Amino acid sequence: MKALLNSAVLVLDLASSEGTIDARHKDIIAQARGCFEELHAIVLCPEVHDCLGGELGRIGVSSVIPIICPEAALTTSALLPSLESAYRSLNLPGAPIFFATRFLDREWAASLAVILGGCAIAEAVEIHVEEDRLRATTDALGGSWRAEVLATAAPACVCLRSRGLIPQESDDQCRVGEPIV
User: Fold this and answer.
1) What is the pLDDT, as a whole number, of residue 84?
2) How far apart are CA 41 and CA 21, in angstroms?
3) What angle do CA 18, 19, 22 make, to 5 degrees?
4) pTM for the full model?
5) Alpha carbon 83 to chain centroid distance?
6) Residue 18: band (very low, low, confident or very high) from pLDDT cuts 50, 70, 90
7) Burial of residue 106 (number of CB atoms within 10 Å: 0-12, 13-18, 19+)
8) What is the spatial distance between Cα 96 and Cα 176, in angstroms, rounded to a whole number?
């Protein structure tokens, strides 16, 4: 299984984000880049952008397969055959597939896992490759516990939560001091 974990596939929904690669997408790419040597992207977009491959290439994505779809067509039944075909065309059997954590992404991940004979992991906050297996950390019990999930079937379809949602300390001097009443 080691050879399978050199590469990963990212599904990026740009149709819902006005065709731009936002901080959430960049963070998911960065998290995957930390565990895998080679990243490939399946990009859902309303139209082909010539600069898309170059922009993704600059942040570490080796290849891009666009799926052209308007936002109104972002349904599981409409997209699942295209997602399956795009994944298979990469010829990376068993490579994990990463999605964002929106509702549609979770639905796509679970459905694609069933079709490909893999497993689905929802709401992962961290990913690791240990002993040639993918391990994901998820929140449990409302975030008061952490659960470790080991992917035992390949490909693992993982909804990866962006670390950008974690509030960061601010150096903004406007927020220092006592409130004015």
Assistant:
1) 94
2) 12
3) 85
4) 0.81
5) 13
6) low
7) middle
8) 44
Query: Where does residue 80 rank: exposed (0-12), middle (13-18), buried (19+ CB within 10 A)?
Result: middle
Candidates 107, 121, 105; CA nearest to 157 is 121
Question: ∠ CA 80-151-144 to the nearest 5 degrees?
Answer: 100
Distance CA 162, CA 171 (A): 22
How many Cβ atoms sit within 10 Å of the Cβ of residue 138? Answer: 18
Tokens 């929802």 label which residue?
Answer: 122
CA distance 157 to 111: 9
- State yes or no: pLDDT of 46 exceeds 50: yes
The DSSP secondary structure of the chain, one letter per residue, reads -GGGGGEEEEEEE-TTTTT---HHHHHHHHHHHTT-SEEEEEEEESS--TTHHHHHHHTTEEEEEEEE--GGG--HHHHHHHHHHHHHHTT-TT--EEE-SSHHHHHHHHHHHHHHT-EEEEEEEEEEEETTEEEEEEEEGGGTEEEEEE--SSSEEEEEPPGGGS------GGGSSPPP-
